[in-house]
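Box S1 | Example of a co-folding query
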Amino acid sequence: MKGKKPTGAYCLGIESTADDFSVGLSSFDGEILANVVDAYVPPEGGIHPREAARHHAEVAGMVLEAALKTSGLGPKDLSLIAFSLGPGLGPCLRTGATVARGLASYLHVPLVGVNHCVAHIEIGKLEAAAKDPVTLYVSGGNTIVAAYDSGRYRVFGETLDIALGNCLDVFAREAGLRQKLGLPFGAVVERLAGEGGELISLPYSVKGMDLSLSGLLTAAVCLMRSGRHRLEDVCYSLQETAFSMVTEVTERALAHTEKDEVLLTGGVAANKRLQMMIGSMAKDHDASFKPVPGRFAIDNGAMVAWTGVLAYTHGVETPVESSAVKLRWRLDEVEIPWMQ
Ligand code: AMP
Ligand code: MG
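Box S1 (continued) | Returned holo structure for magnesium ion
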């Protein structure tokens, strides 16, 4: 790795864009020493930004301590503090940023704000050993097909409305499902879908390279409420339809860019059926399929720490006085000097 490398080179990364508060530790060589995640689970309904931020403030100290303990590092070993600068929910982002600024100032080490979507791609590349993939990034807040070109990760396609994870989560809540055994809603839908098999026709909406999921969600909820079909079959049909849409867009980006790797990252990447569909599409194009390992699929601090290392060692720094969070910071606005 080129660029500056301070002594005792470890970076602490803080993730707090939405429901998860996480602290990860990475060496400057990409060894992940800790990755502690504490998720906010709302008592009912979706994530309320201020309630999630309150959770983050409450658990920050404990998560920080747990991550340091796991890594065996002490505060003096830290040479860099990274945090998710955006995109995300304002109160949640600000809570993480406040912790990061405090740590950097107290320890007299540099601060670097990283783009959350870039971090998902970088941890995927690191942990799934991908070099220059087409990435399908699917999570609770994002649904993006991207690939590197001329200094940036270019967005080839994205959702025009809600994210894939959000679509599954809202459906699950409307169906009265519960997050049993700490399973995320998407995983609960996945389990039920595994017991279904009848494919019921639902709106399939790919528009050019983009896609739309809100009509599909509404139709799936109506179908579920009609009581005419087994819930398992509705879950199965919802998954098949939504996953086919993201697979189609990813396939087109792969054909266009002629890259030879497909990276699947973000919380929904844990889904086995989606992995199967993207994997088989990649195989058809003689591309290798690289799913990010489960613990790095969801929002996590390790991805922020590692992306902080990449950014800082290539000249990016975020002085405290200009570290205001960016709620709508698009992936394709970020320069990626380490890929050049
Ligand atoms: P993230 O936003 O990256 O933290 O990911 C959280 C999202 O991933 C939520 O929408 C979850 O429901 C979803 N998710 C987690 N596990 C699975 C799974 N096995 N299948 C589908 N979605 C999942
Ligand atoms: Mg999350």
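The chain has a mean pLDDT of 96. The longest strand covers residues 78-86.
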